[in-house]
Structure formats: C-alpha cells, structure tokens
Amino acid sequence: MNIIIDHQIFFQNRFGGISKIFLEILRRLRERNINVETSVKVDSYSRGILIDRVTNEQINLPGCISLYRVYKIIERIYLYFGFSLPEFLIKRERGIFKYSLRKQIKKIEGVVCNELLSNDFTIFHPTYFQSYYLDALENSRTKMIITVYDCVHELFPEYYGDSNFILKNRQKLCEIADHIICISHNTKNDLLRLYPSVSKEKVSVIYLAGDLSSEMVISNNLPFNEYLLFVGNRSDYKNFSVLLNAFSILREEEQINLLCVGGGGFSLSEQKSIENLGLGDSVYWNSIISDAQLASFYRNASLFIYPSLYEGFGIPLLESMSVGCPVLCSNIEVFYEVAGDAASYFDPKDPIDLKNKIKEILSEKHLKEKLIRQGFDRVKNFSWNRCADQHILIYESLSQLNAN
C-alpha cells in the first residue's frame, strides 16, 4: 500500500482547519510505518514553509516581482497611515497569494499527474477540490479517496458566487471517487441530499478530534483577565455579527472582554461595527502562532462561544472541552452531534438569547462546572489515533481492490 496526499490545502490554509486534519493523519501514518508521501514536504508547515520534494527548496515563496508583493506593499502603506485594508482586498489575500505561486503549483500538479500515470501509488487522497489530476487519474490504476468537510458552498452560495471552483467540481469529484470520507453524519446527509447521483455505499463518516490537553501551559500576557473567546474565521456564515450584538447588550450588565483569536485582524467593516456598538475598549484580536498558545487562550477564557450558522464538524468545540473551557454554541444539528450534552446551546439568529445564555453560564457556577466536567467526558469519544486508524482501513481496502 502506497499513499500520496496532495498539496492543495497547504497552499490554502495558514494554521489549523483542514490542513490540521491531514497533518494529524500524516503523523500517525508515519508512526505506523505506512508508506505515505505528500506532493510537497510539510515538515516545516507550522512555520509557513512548504518544501519542494525534488529541489528541497521552499516552494511557497512568492517572487520579488509578483502580485502578492504588490498586495503587501499596499498593506504596509495602509498601515503606515493608520488605515485598514478594504475588506474586499483582505478576503482575496489567499487568492492573490496562490495566484502569485501559480507556476510553482503547476509544477507540483505535473509531478502528481506523472506519479498517477506511473501507478507508483495505490491510493491518491487529494486534500481539496481542484481537478487538475482528472485526465491522469482516468488512465491510472490508482484509487482516489476524497474528503468532504462540509457543504457550505452549496448551502450558502451567496457568499461564494457561481464561479467558485468547489461548486463546479465537487459533484464530479465525488461521483468518480472510489471512496468518500465525510467528517460528520450531518455532512454526509447534506452531501447525499444535494447530490443524489453520489452512491451512498461508498461514503463513510470518520470523526475528527481536537485534544489540546497535552500542550504546555504558557502565558499569553493579555491586558485583561476575564474574557469570552471566539476562535477562527469570522466571515459570513460564521455569524460573528450576532456575537458582537449580543456582547454589546451584555456589556451593559457585565464588565468582561471579548477576545477573538485567529482568522486575521479585524476588517474595516468589523472595526466600524465594534466602534458603532461602543466596544472599542472591550473587543480584542490576537493571532495564533502555536497549538500551545491556542490551548492557553482556551484555558484562561471564561467561556468559548461558537455562533456559526453551519459547520461540517467543529474541532474548536473539542479543543475547548479538552482543556476545561465551557462551551456555548449554536443549536445547529452538527454541534449536537459533536458536543452532545457537554455544551450549552443558543439560537444563532437571536442575540438576546445568546446574551442570556452567556450571562447564565457566567453567573451560575454549578452550570459552568457541569459543562466543564461533561466536556472532559465528551472529548474522550474523539481521537486522532482512531481517526487515522479508520483512514487506514479504507486505504487498505481500496489497495486490495487495486491489487486484484
């Protein structure tokens, strides 16, 4: 059994998210001495570095003359004059970055296609939904597995536009895949409902994990002690605006801060919203540079809040529980699937309900302790080792078919 995992998501993500899934699985595959290769070397990915397998040089470094360098110059000019970049530019940073690396990415794609044609690998696991490999795969004996993380692009197309490559490619890739992994039953149900042409017999559910309990205890040196915590991307369906509105009402009754970590600094529109709500001295942002730092943000928070309208799984739920931070999240189906009775739930479209639930947890010590206790129990149901083992079973099954 020889497995190749491609590069797509490592050019897409910076920290956490889908890239974390593959890093966790890769580590365990290698610990089990399973033959697995990545189309780029990801050993230094935590430092933002991807290495070319052939030249051993960094491959995700835009040239001195590139669109991304122009973007960074514009960003510095805005910062120099004390302005924030326009939101439409911030949202396009990753696209500009990838466009500036298009020659490097094209080179990697060519290597992957050649390896598929050579049948050097029994399993191909692309990490996202570009379709560069389809012609090569059609002429290869290699079996393809694809992971569906969510169906947010189909369910919220207004945030992505009709030209989004995921909307163009997902159905076809799922139809030709030899096996599909969904990260929750909710995602599986959405996928099969949206694309009835996809055979349900080849779809498996493999849960993710999110245990930060082994991370070292460090200090974040924040200028305050009591805070509510929001983690990750804040755009669109992440529903950050409802949290801001609820927090503005809460601040009339409670002296507490809101800390947002990851997801990039506040956009111009977010800054305006924060100022208009009179929250300029109580809403803060911080970057995430390591899992240890992220664990510390959770450990020291009074409450972790996850207000999304939709998710495919929800790793932050488990991360928070694993280090004893109580969870308050949207009453969406997938969060019940992951968090069970170890979280408190609110209506994600009702800031008053969110405010009331926050206040209830902050004021009722027994409720907070119950959520923490049940969180420790709940997180035991999810394991990266189990996640990797279930991937291996699918890889082995398809490899045997390949051998036959």
Tell me what you see in this structure:
This protein is an alpha/beta fold and 404 residues long. It has two domains: 2-60 and 101-209 and 384-403, Rossmann fold, CATH 3.40.50; 227-379, Rossmann fold. It is 46% helix and 12% strand. The protein has helices at 8-12, 17-31, 67-80, 87-90, 93-100, 102-118, 134-138, 152-155, 165-176, 185-194, 240-250, 268-276, 291-300, 315-322, 333-339, 351-363, 365-379, 384-403, and strands at residues 2-5, 35-38, 123-125, 143-148, 179-182, 203-205, 227-231, 257-261, 283-286, 303-306, 327-330, 344-346. The strands form two sheets. It has a six-stranded parallel beta sheet, with helices on both faces. The protein has a six-stranded parallel beta sheet with strand order 9-8-7-10-11-12, sandwiched between helices. Helix 2 packs across helix 18. The two termini are 13 Å apart. The mean pLDDT is 92.
Name the features.
six-stranded parallel beta sheet; Glycosyltransferase family 1 protein; 404 residues; globular; 12 strands; alpha/beta; Glyco_trans_1; Rossmann fold; 12% strand
Quick rundown:
This protein has helices spanning 8-12, 17-31, 67-80, 87-90, 93-100, 102-118, 134-138, 152-155, 165-176, 185-194, 240-250, 268-276, 291-300, 315-322, 333-339, 351-363, 365-379, 384-403; strands spanning 2-5, 35-38, 123-125, 143-148, 179-182, 203-205, 227-231, 257-261, 283-286, 303-306, 327-330, 344-346.
